[in-house]
Amino acid sequence: MLDPDLIAQHRQELRRGTTSLACLALLAATPDYGYRLIGRLADLGFEVEANTLYPLLRRLDKQGLLSFEWDTSEARPRKVYATAPAGIELVSLLRADWNRLTEALDRMDRP
Amino acid sequence: MLDPDLIAQHRQELRRGTTSLACLALLAATPDYGYRLIGRLADLGFEVEANTLYPLLRRLDKQGLLSFEWDTSEARPRKVYATAPAGIELVSLLRADWNRLTEALDRMDRP
User: Fold this and answer.
1) Is A47 on the interface with B (CB under 8 A)?
2) How far are the Cα atoms of A30, A102, B55, B93 from residue B100, in angstroms, in the given order?
3) A52 at interface of B, judged by CB pairs closer than 8 A
4) Which residues form the domain of A54?
5) Which among A54, A108, B30, B38 is least surrounded, fewest beta carbons within 10 Å?
6) Looking at the 3D structure of chain B, how many domains does it have?
């Protein structure tokens, strides 16, 4: 009855805003390389592709929510991202929003 | 420290996907006019403006997730929207996604 493309579209919309939040929360706990962050996100159920994640990390960096240092210990320098103080502040605001939305959805189930 | 526009942008992203879900869930419980749905959403903490909600309702109708009947009991005919069977199915899928995302976010807090 439900068109798979339609389901996918609505799922993606629901998920989109949470990916930034998940990245900021994970990189606040432990700074990491982009490619390892993809694995940590996947472990939590957030399937994010590299060509989605890398532009997102650059955007969050430009917004002052993340910062990075170069790890030059190997042949090719790699960026190690960490959540900036502004990003940590945003995580707590967005978590509060998320909790309010969850409560609102729960209240709908018992009108 | 945090730019208010930046906060607003991230909040809106987080919220966007949930508005469709909230509309479908509310109109599954009780069919309603668009303008009254705005009030029911606001009561639950979803501030949605008419010029956002009306195009959304038309989109959900085109997607077969909502249907409407004309209420002609007053001078000006009005649409009464109700969630279609496909919409009810989608609500339960998206609620399951939401619960998984909530669990994932909760797990981040205790790494």
Assistant:
1) no
2) 22, 12, 29, 11
3) no
4) 16-108
5) B30
6) 1
Q: What is the pTM of this model?
A: 0.79
Q: Let me know if residue B65 belongs to a domain.
A: yes
Do the domain assignments include residue A3? no
Tens of pLDDT, residue by residue over A74-106, are: 999 999 999 999 999 999 998 888 888 888 888
| Contact by Cβ (8 Å): B79, B68 | yes
CB B98 within 8 A of CB A105: yes
pLDDT in tens, A41-61: 998 888 899 999 999 999 999
Neighboring chain A residues of B46 at a CB cutoff of 8 Å: 101, 104
Q: Which residues of A touch B85 (CB under 8 A)?
A: 1
**Neighbour count for residue A90 (Cβ, 10 Å):** 27
Q: CATH number, domain at A82?
A: 1.10.10.10
Of A12, A14, A107, the CB nearest to B21: A14
Question: Is residue B55 assigned to a domain?
Answer: yes
Q: Flag whether A5 is in a domain.
A: no
Q: Is the ipTM of this complex over 0.85?
A: no
Tell if the CB–CB gap between B86 and A1 is shorter than 8 Å. yes
Task: Return the residue matching tokens 């797990």.
Answer: B107
**Inter-chain contact B14–A107, Cβ cutoff 8 Å?**
no
For A71, phi then psi, to 5°, come to: -95, 110
Q: Measure A75 CA to nearest chain B CA, in Å.
A: 31
